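Holo prediction — adenosine-5'-triphosphate.
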Amino acid sequence: MMTTPPAADAEILCEDLIRVYVTEGVEVQALQGLDLRVERGDLVALVGASGSGKSTLLTILSGLDRPTAGTAFVAGWDVLRMTGAQRRAYRRDVVGFAWQQTARNLLPYLTAAENVALPMVATRTARLRERTARVDELLEVMGVTHCRDRRPAELSGGEQQRVAIATAVANRPRVLLADEPTGELDEETSADVLEAIRHVNETFGTTTLIVTHDPLVADHVRRTVQIRDGRTSRETLRRTAVGEDGHARLHAEEFTVIDRAGRLQLPTEYVEQLGLRDRVRLGLEPDHVRVHAGTTPSTGHAEAPQAPQAPQASQEES
Ligand SMILES: Nc1ncnc2c1ncn2[C@@H]1O[C@H](COP(=O)(O)OP(=O)(O)OP(=O)(O)O)[C@@H](O)[C@H]1O
């Protein structure tokens, strides 16, 4: 359903997303009020420990599952309120997916080129000549032109994933969702696949969300969002800046996410390093918030250790 999302410019916008699974009378809160905003054309990695809710979120964004409550808009589509027919159109035209299990992505009896062409054949969106040109373009962007006439069994794991991503974006979806695309690959092959995803993002402007627990993914994306206990908790933004000496350097800035109720999570290492627990003392400064260990009233600043300062992040334990 095309409705205007609350913030029309965000390509993916989730607010207070909740997903409760009930199995045999036992409730599991997989998503506990998750907020996420991804701008159009962005490339974002969503990282988090096993069980933190990453796959649950991706399943919702891909239109395969409905959340229990909250809002989720993808490319202007309200994923909570789609009818069956709209859901099929959404999955066909708006989002592309690549899954961890390579076998789930490609048909084993088709060649790489036939696999990539398949979504276009299914939607009858292009004539044969346009289709062939599109397949060639995609295989080239993904660096797998040499695999054109081979079947999946004749490809390496990394080549299979690159063909799978070419297939996922064949119909020019606005959003690409990838669930652990490097989960079955070694480090070097993973880096190749991630660079290929980045190339697709830059070439076609496809908004891309990669879900992973591979920390190396963070090196290949501009923005990493960490999910903890079914909520987004921290973000890292990377940018390259040229210093006074003329050399380009990569800067990484850490942010913590603050929700509408003013709650935020302190990084575990800050909590451990300063022995923060139970209650902390806060102080409001003109441009930041101080967080001190200890629960007794302060007579000055000197006696309590000061929390390391995270850029932009005011810190308070939730
Ligand atoms: N269909 C389901 N029925 C019941 N509980 C589920 C279901 N799917 C997920 N869960 C539970 O929801 C929580 C979040 O699971 P989810 O698969 O989203 O985490 P994840 O971060 O993707 O983990 P992993 O990295 O191991 O895939 C877990 O406690 C999981 O057991």
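READOUT: Residues 162 and 193 are 6 Å apart (CA to CA).
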